[in-house]
Structure formats: structure tokens, C-alpha cells
Amino acid sequence: MKTTVAEGSRLLFLVLWLNSVPQVECCPGVCVCYSEPRTTVACQQQGLSSIPTEIPIRSQRIFLQNNKLTVVKSTSFSSCHNLTVLWLYSNNISHIEAGAFYGLERLEELDIGDNSNLRIISPTAFRGLSRLHTLHLHRCGLSELPIGVFRGLFSLQYLYLQDNNLLTLHDDTFLDLANLTYLFLHGNKIKTVSENMLRGLIGLDRLLLHQNRVTSVHRRAFHDLGKLTTFYLFNNNLTVLTGETMDYLVSLQYLRLNGNQWICDCRARSLWDWFKRFKGSSSELECHVPASLVGKDLKRLKASDLEGCLDNSHQIRTSIFSTKTRSGKLPSTETPLREGSPRCCLPESDKSSIISSKGLPDPSSYNSRQITNNPLKEKENISKPKFPDVDPTKNGTRNKQRLNDDPVGTFSNTQDDPLGKLKPDYTDNLEPSTAPSRKKKKCSKKPKPDAQCLKSKGSTSRALNLLFLPIIWFSLTIC
After folding, report:
1. Where is 451: in which H helix or E strand?
2. How many Å separate Cα 292 from the centre of its chain?
3. DSSP secondary structure, 180-209, as one string
4. Residue 462 confidence class, pLDDT cut points 50, 70, 90
């Protein structure tokens, strides 16, 4: 009797012990399974095209990286309620079914990075993963993140979104991520940092936004980043960043802003002032313009270097105008000077205003100075007109307005004075055009052809010669 009781006690103890030991059942044939330190199924680099169906339900870690997986089904991990780590990176995944991670309430780390064909994520793909602290979505070909994709991920601390094709991020994308500490957004195509793009990231410590295409940052874009210590914004397309924008970063220690096209004029003054207060470490900010400051560090400039603002629009207009004039067309909305007519034949109205009023010129009667292809001829033409007491650099750019075939808005509304507003003695010396002129204007008092005008002037000269010839001969005879 005592022997029977003792054997029964041993069997009971054995059963209890076996129940207390973690069991690994039905390990997939191509995988390696082990129970210590946590129940793990390792199936990496096995050439798998689909997720094995014999994964033990007690699994806590599943490694499926570096295979040929294409789809993550909604039933792939539905029974693995103890799962804490899931690695699916470096596969060919192009689709994740809705509910694929549903029920994995204990999941802490999910890596689906380096799946370049994924491109689209369902808005509810990560719903319910309240304990997730690390999420890898790098190199997935993502061009957009759906609204609410990170909703409910209150425990998330590390988010990897680098090296995708993201063009923009919706406002409040990270609103629920108050515990996020690292956000990696570098290597995308983001152009604008809006006011609420980073809202909710009150615990963020490191933000990497370098190697994007950022051209503008809203002045309140960083208003929730009071705990940020490391900020990379280098290799973007920034030209201006205000000190008021940076004032929110009260905990910042490491800053990199190099590799941008900084305009070092009065618009950089507030950022320059902010750097005087900044106690952390920073890269250089190489000036892109003006030419006198190219390559110099904005932080090391003097206050006097930042006086005045460059007129970029004026520089652009000058460049466009230069292109037009080289093509042989003057961008003007005024009728060009009527060349080739003697002053005696100009009507009184034409004498008072040589340039007609503002209508668009008729291209067929465009008689203003044409630029030839012969450099010597151009030099000769340019050297002939001599305006007394006039700066040639100013008058040389007068009357340059937009032609009717030019893009609208190429030039500003402020135009130089037309030739008709110059003093009369300035316009009298204008060289006749080398282009063929229009039909010559008849005389204003007695209409007659130009040839008759010239003939009458010649007749007057001969009459004067005949009148003075006897007087000259008589004077010579007396001498």
C-alpha cells in the first residue's frame, strides 16, 4: 500500500514538472526552434516563399528575415498571442492583409523594413499593438502614410521610416506617439515641414530629417519638440530658417544644418541671433548668396554682413531680359522709334512724343535697333550714339518691357521711363536703325515726298552758295 502511494506521488510530481517546462511543439522542418531564453522559431535565409503554417502557438520570437515572402496573411500569426518579436525584413513583401497583426497584443518589436515592393500600408495595419515599442518601415518604397496609421501606438519609442519615397506627411500623423524618442525620416523626398506635421511628439529626443528636399519650415513646426536633443536637417533645399522657429528647441544639443543653400542677408539675421544664444554643437552653415559671402559660415559673420536684403526677383528678371536681348528682340510694349525720317518731315505730334503710346507693337513694323550677328557691327552701332551727361548703363536698359509673346509676369510692374520721356536733345542723337524702315512720313505743313524734302533742302543750299560767291570773289580781288 505504501509502495503504491509512493509511486503515485512520483507520477504526479513528474506530470506537474512536465507541465511547468515550456514546450516546443511542431517546429517547421526548415526552421530551428529552441525554448531558452524565450521560445524562438528561427527560419531566416531558408528561401521561403510563404510563411510556415506549423509555427508553435507558444512562440515568443519569430525570425523570418532574408527569405522570399510576398504576402503576410491575416491568419499567419493569429494564434501566436505570446509573440513579442517578429522580424520580416529583407523579403519581397508587397501586401499585408488587414488584420495580419490583430491579436498580437504583447508584440514589442516589428521589423518589416527593406521590402521595397510594399509601397502601401493599410490604415489599420498596426491597430491594437498597444505594447509595440519598435517599428521598422525603412526602405519599403512608401510614397505616403495613410491617415491614422500610427493611431493607438502609445508605447512606441523607435520609428524607422528612412529611405522611402515619402513626399509629404499628413498633419497629426504622430499625434498618439507621445513616448516616441527616435524618429528617422532621412532619405525621403519631403518638401515642407508644416505646422502640425510633428505635433504630439512631446518626448522626442532625436529627429533625423536630412537628405530630403525640404524648402520651407513653418515657424511653429517644432512647437512640441521641447525635449529634442539631436536634430539633423542637412542636405536639403533650405534657404531661410528663422530664429523664432528654432526657439522651441530648448533642449537641443546637436544640430546639423550644412548642405543647404543659405541666403546670408537680412533674412538670416534672426537665425544668426539664435546661434548667439545656442550653447550646443552645430555644423557650419555655408552661405550660398551673396557672392561676397559664398562658402562662409553664417554663424561667424558680423552683424554688418547681414544688412540689407537681396532682390532675387530682380536678378531673375535681369537674367530673363539678357536672354531676350541676345535673341535680337527687345522686350518692349511700346512702339519703337520711327527711324529714317528727316526732322522736317515729322509731324508736330511726332516731335513732341517720338514714341507712340502704350499699345502692343505690330511685329511686322518693328523697327527698333536690331542686334546683328557681327560683333564688329554691334560694337560700331553701340559706340555711335552719344548721350550728353547720361549714364549709358542706365539708358541702355530703358524701354525693356514685356513683348506680347513673352510669359505674363516676367517683369515687374515698375518699368523704366520710355524714350518718349527723355529730354529732346537725348533722342535727337539716336542712331538710325539698321533694319528696313517703314514708309517715310510726309511733311507736316506741305505734304510732299521725302525726296522733295531733301531736294528743297539741297536747293536752298545752292541758292545760298550763289549768293555768297560774288562777295567772296570781290574780297579776294581787293586783297
Report:
1. helix 450-478
2. 24
3. --EEE--SS---EE-TTTTTT-TT--EEE-
4. low
- The three-point CA angle 184-188-192 to 5° equals 95
How are the residues of the chain apportioned to helix, strand and coil, as percentages rounded to the nearest 5?
A: 25, 10, 65
- The predicted model gives 89-111 an average pLDDT of 95
Q: What whole-number distance in Å separates Cα of residue 28 and Cα of residue 473? A: 134
| Listed residue (108, 188, 180, 179) closest to 145, CA to CA | 188
Residue 56 in contact with residue 47, Cβ under 8 Å?
Answer: no
pLDDT band at 54 (very low <50, low <70, confident <90, very high): confident
Beta strands in 305-418 (DSSP E): none
Calpha distance 416→314 (Å, rounded): 13
Task: Give the three-class secondary structure for 306.
Answer: helix
pLDDT digit string, tens, across residues 261-305: 999 999 999 999 999 999 999 999 999 999 999 999 999 999 988
pLDDT band at 407 (very low <50, low <70, confident <90, very high): very low
For residue 459, give the 3-state DSSP assignment: helix
Identify the residue with better confidence: 147 or 407: 147
Type of residue found at 31: C
Cell numbers describing residue 82? 505570446
Measured CA to CA, the distance from residue 239 to residue 257 in angstroms comes to 11
432/440 Cα distance (integer angstroms): 13
Give the model's confidence band at 29: pLDDT under 50 very low, under 70 low, under 90 confident, else very high. confident
- With residue 428 as reference, give the H or E element that holds it: helix 424-428
- The β-bridge partners of 33 are 41
Note whether 75 and 96 are within 8 A (CB). Answer: no
- For residues 454 and 456, what is the distance between their CA atoms, to the nearest angstrom? 5
Question: 49 is written with which cell numbers?
Answer: 516563399
Q: Which has the minimum average pLDDT: 133-142, 299-308, 463-472? A: 463-472
Q: What is the pLDDT of residue 479?
A: 45
Phi-psi map region of 423: left, alpha, beta (phi>0 left; psi -120 to 50 alpha): beta
Structure-block grid coordinates of residue 241: 530658417
pTM: 0.62
**DSSP tag of 297:** B
**How far apart (Å, rounded) are the C-alpha atoms in residues 457 and 344?**
10
Bridge pairing between strands 158-160 and 134-136: parallel
Sign of CA dihedral 53, 55, 61, 62: negative
